[in-house]
Amino acid sequence: MMKSMLACCKLYISESRNVIALESIERAAKLHPEAKITNVFKDEVYNRVGYTIVSHFNPSSSSLNASSPLKKAVFSMVKAALETIDLELHSGTHPRVGVVDHICFHPLAQASLAQAAGLAKSVAVDIGHNLQVPTLVYGAAHERGKTLDTIRRELGYFKPSSKENNLWTGRLPADALLSKPDHGPAELTGNKGVVIVGATHWVDNYNVPVLTTNIEAVKRIARRVSERGGGLQSVQAMGLLHGDNSTEVACNLLYPSRVGAHQVLLEIQKLALEEGLTVAEGYFTDFSQEKVIEMYSRNIESN
């Protein structure tokens, strides 16, 4: 039973080019061998890396238990990132609010969302108070279920610092933090930015390349395919530059069993055709949750 209760964390770092920093982050994870990194997705244009970390969940102990392998691994990785990455030097075509931009916990197998939320709350407290970085929580980790999208909009996440080049560069504006964070200092200090920590059911991250440099047209497509823009339910999307000659519609599929990648791709193809544009095949930035469980189990068995 215990082995079938797993928790997963997706940890997004605003860096993909600093090899020394990434090696330090991955060494920190290896200090906790019961937690396994099942996927690393680096994107040098976005200057962003996503780690998927999985561990067993012990139902007989409190979700806030400091002995949780996943909690210890994630905290160690966050600490290493904050010690080795300077947000002032960051530049990329993907939005971010901090060195550690986003942390999300998901229940896997027979674990519950409440258990994943317990881990998220505990990690958020430790980051805010022990590492002294303003930390905000969302989803099941928030008492009113505040959404990630809402927090990001409040922080100005979707507004590039260089509108002409559609780039996000340097630290956040001093006035970006409009309200008191859930944990940690009430003001932005240093060059670490803000950390957002949440818990939700599994989310698929799915990107669709569009063969154009017309970023405004791609932003229109992203807006129309998203639920917020009147498009597909449970789909969030944004249009981003992705290299000198390409753009992407980057999507979060909040309930992939209801609205999946194939449906999203067909809708983007239709909208792109209306703009006179062509799209390439979409791709996932992570494995499916079933594959993640399989990879973790195989890794544990082999060790």
What composes the largest sheet? 6 strands, mixed
Beta content: 15-25%
Q: Please state the average pLDDT score.
A: 94
> What is the structural class?
alpha+beta
Count of helical stretches: 7
Helix content: 25-40%
For the largest sheet, list the strands in their spatial order. Answer: 2-3-1-5-8-6
How does this model look, in words?
It is globular and about 55 Å long. The relative contact order is 0.15. It contains 7 helices and 12 strands. Helix content is 30%, strand content 24%. The chain has helices at 19-30, 69-84, 113-130, 148-154, 215-225, 261-274, 289-302, and strands at 5-13, 36-43, 48-56, 91-92, 100-109, 135-139, 168-169, 195-199, 204-210, 235-241, 247-253, 283-284. The mean pLDDT is 94. The chain is α+β, with helices and mostly antiparallel strands and 303 residues long.
SSE arrangement:
Elements: E1 5-13, H1 19-30, E2 36-43, E3 48-56, H2 69-84, E4 91-92, E5 100-109, H3 113-130, E6 135-139, H4 148-154, E7 168-169, E8 195-199, E9 204-210, H5 215-225, E10 235-241, E11 247-253, H6 261-274, E12 283-284, H7 289-302
Parallel strand pairs: 5-8, 6-8
Antiparallel strand pairs: 1-3, 1-5, 2-3, 4-7, 9-11, 9-12, 10-11
